[in-house]
Automatic annotation (TrEMBL):
It comes from Hyphomonas pacifica. GO terms for molecular function: sigma factor antagonist activity. InterPro entries: FecR, FecR_N, Ferrdict_sens_TM. This is FecR protein domain-containing protein. Residues 8-49 form the FecR N-terminal domain. PANTHER family: PERIPLASMIC SIGNAL SENSOR AND SIGMA FACTOR ACTIVATOR FECR-RELATED (PTHR30273), PROTEIN FECR (PTHR30273:SF2). Residues 126-217 form the FecR protein domain. It comes from the Bacteria.
Length: 336
């Protein structure tokens, strides 16, 4: 399969997953698929990876085998610097000519835990470890599910319900109370609701809020800009207070609750940050020029090693396993 055909197939898949494909583009896509069996094969293989990552474990065994025990020092994510450029997965279509938050378990292994939050100050802290997903039931009946490596502070008082997402991700199902709005602070972003369901993701560069049910108001802690979101809308707020809104499929929200991770045109650095909430050994990037490489993929949390192998193949990267069983993605030797 040629690299050109694979690149075209990837762009078509990105466009279809985004939900932005119009009628003209659909016709163009069908024509492209019918041009050759190679086109059909390339697209089908990529779509299969997206659907369930059911590629052969044996096929990827060599890529994951411990290489000459390269001594890579553990540092903060992205601190490995070596190698030149990496291929990018473009989210654009070239084949056709398209912070406070007003809003707390279940182990990955299957055990569940319900925790009642304190109904008064001081704040109650809830925290999850790597690969742990925990459901918390608050005193007002609201529910919050925390992703791996996440931390939440909750404080109730007369006239207010307040939470702080201090790290990681949370899915919030808030009981309606017109007299006590629910707010969630997440870094530099505030979200306010009376009763709704939504997901919050905290990342180093931005905070993301996705609404599954009802409506929320999202605003930076500093600044006058704000966004009112309804079902199927998402807001990404950067550290400068800039808000970017987009559409998404509510069915894909907080997929980690079903032990699955979904990424659509996601920068590799951001993908690795999220993966490390579920992979104790750690995944790292070995060269700075691959941080922004965009990836569209989906895999189960118990498939992380296989998924990293597939991403390495798709981006033409090396995948190294260190003596500490860390996985390092880096540009191939000799690439310029």
């Amino acid at each position: 399969m040629s690299a050109t055909v694979e690149t075209q197939a990837r762009k078509w898949l990105d466009l279809r997953i985004s939900g932005d494909m119009n009628d003209e583009q659909r016709i163009c896509f069908q024509n492209w698929m019918e041009q050759s069996e190679a086109h059909k094969l390339a697209y089908t293989q990529l779509a299969r990876l997206w659907g369930d990552l059911s590629w052969s474990e044996a096929l990827n065994a060599d890529a994951l085998a411990p290489s000459p025990r390269e001594g890579v020092r553990r540092r903060s994510l992205g601190a490995f610097v070596s190698g030149p450029r990496a291929a990018l997965l473009s989210g654009t279509l070239a084949a056709c000519a398209g912070l406070a938050i007003f809003l707390s378990g279940q182990q990955m292994q299957g055990s569940s835990e319900l925790v009642m939050a304190s109904s008064a100050a001081p704040a109650t802290i809830y925290e999850t470890g790597i690969a742990e997903v925990r459901q918390v039931i608050l005193a007002d009946g609201s529910e919050v599910t925390l992703a791996g490596k996440s931390k939440l502070s909750v404080s109730f008082a007369e006239g207010r319900r307040q939470a702080k997402l201090l790290a990681g991700d949370g899915y919030f199902k808030i009981s309606h109370d017109a007299n006590r709005p629910f707010s969630v602070d997440a870094g530099h972003v505030v979200t306010r609701v009376l009763g709704t369901q939504f997901e919050i993701n905290t990342r180093p560069a931005h905070v993301e809020v996705s609404v599954v049910e009802g409506a929320v108001e999202v605003s930076p802690v500093s600044g006058e800009q704000k966004a009112n979101l309804t079902v199927g809308q998402r807001a990404s707020v950067d550290r400068n207070g800039q808000i970017i809104t987009s559409q998404f499929s509510p069915a894909q929200a907080a997929s980690w609750r079903q032990q699955r991770l979904i990424f659509v045109n996601t920068p590799l650095q951001e993908l690795v940050d999220e993966v490390n909430q579920y992979y104790p050994q750690g995944v790292y990037l070995g060269s700075t020029d691959i941080y922004e490489a965009e990836v569209t993929t989906s895999f189960r949390i118990d498939q992380i090693e296989t998924a990293m192998s597939g991403i390495a193949l798709g981006l033409d990267l090396d995948l190294i396993r260190t003596s500490a069983d860390e996985l390092v993605l880096r540009a191939r030797s000799g690439q310029k």
